[in-house]
Amino acid sequence: MRVIIAGAGIIGASAAWRLSQGGAEVWLLDAGRLGGEASAAGAGMLAPGAEFPAESGWGEMAMLSHAGYGEFVRELCVESGLGIDYRVCGALDIVMEGEEVLGKGEALTAAEAAVLAPGLRGSGIAGAVHCAKDAVVDPVDVMRSLRRVCTARGVRVMEQCRVLSIRGRGAVVHVATEANGVLEADAAVVASGAWSSQIAVHGEEEALPVPEAFPVRGHLVGYRHEPGSLGPIVRHGHTYLLQRGSGRTIAGTSQEEVGFERKVDAATVEDIHKRAAALLPGLIGGRPEESWMGFRPATRSYTPELRRLEGTRVWLAYGHFRNGILLAPVTAARLSGEILAS
Ligand SMILES: Cc1cc2nc3c(=O)[nH]c(=O)nc-3n(C[C@H](O)[C@H](O)[C@H](O)COP(=O)(O)OP(=O)(O)OC[C@H]3O[C@@H](n4cnc5c(N)ncnc54)[C@H](O)[C@@H]3O)c2cc1C
Q1: What is the pTM of this model?
Q2: How many separate domains does the chain show?
Q3: 259 alpha carbon – ligand 1 mean position (Å)
Q4: Cis omega before residue 109 (within 30°)?
């Protein structure tokens, strides 16, 4: 079976890996570079307590993905021979004076929280909730490994290959590309992140409605610190800080509906820096060394679209919004299972 995947972010690339493990011939097409968009820009926080509408089932999917993340990373490392910065470091949900204690975890006093994260000293917090199972992964490492394992398994990675439309009724799916003509496959997957609904999907002749995907821009900033100087993730409202194994400390974030505007906004960077310095005054001293942004792929329900378009051999896999790095393992397993069984 040949499967064409439109989009080589973490969703498309991890599905390509699982499909190739299952024996499919996979062509992984990207309008730009593999891992060139949201998937390399993300912070890589793996928080199973992430909120989803109860009826969507994605809360359970997030728990499942989180529980299996260590194994996903281990398998990727073994197969690729490359390292991945992944740590179950826990998280502190900070409680300020007068705020309600929220979150599922152990309630800590300010002094107890400062033992886990000494940088909190001087911040005037009232306490924290300790979520011991939260983890971090470097998504750039994950994308590098996915490229290696996909290539090694014979996945045809086609970069600078934009998909324009997919015609999917009947046994053969036709995928029209900008630069490589019309490609034929037995199944196709739309995994183009925030751009997914720009790909027109047709049945025989008729256009099939697909849910809108749109970008929600997020900024992050980075600092250089001593490795190990920040243990757990520290979170408060829209502000969070986490540290890579190298000591690179990342602070976020913003949530902006500004279309596909790529310009890094200086005022937003300044705002994130100020919030980060107020939360961890004992760690954040100087200015950030770097700042960047990415487009979270959202849908109007803010839950992922992961399903087969009725009557076609076309699957949708997009809209993972703030949790695509967390949800990639479970998405890839479910999608590849369905396609291989079809
Ligand atoms: C600032 C920020 C922080 C984040 N933090 C976290 C976090 O801590 N934890 C977490 O789990 N998630 C986080 N996320 C969310 C996560 O990064 C995304 O949900 C995830 O990367 C989405 O992956 P994707 O493969 O769907 O999209 P993308 O990575 O955007 O990949 C889509 C790909 O499709 C390609 N494409 C577009 N149009 C076409 C076309 N027509 N044809 C072919 N290819 C096309 C693009 O070039 C791109 O490479 C964060 C995101 C941002 C921006």
Answers
A1: 0.98
A2: 2
A3: 15
A4: no
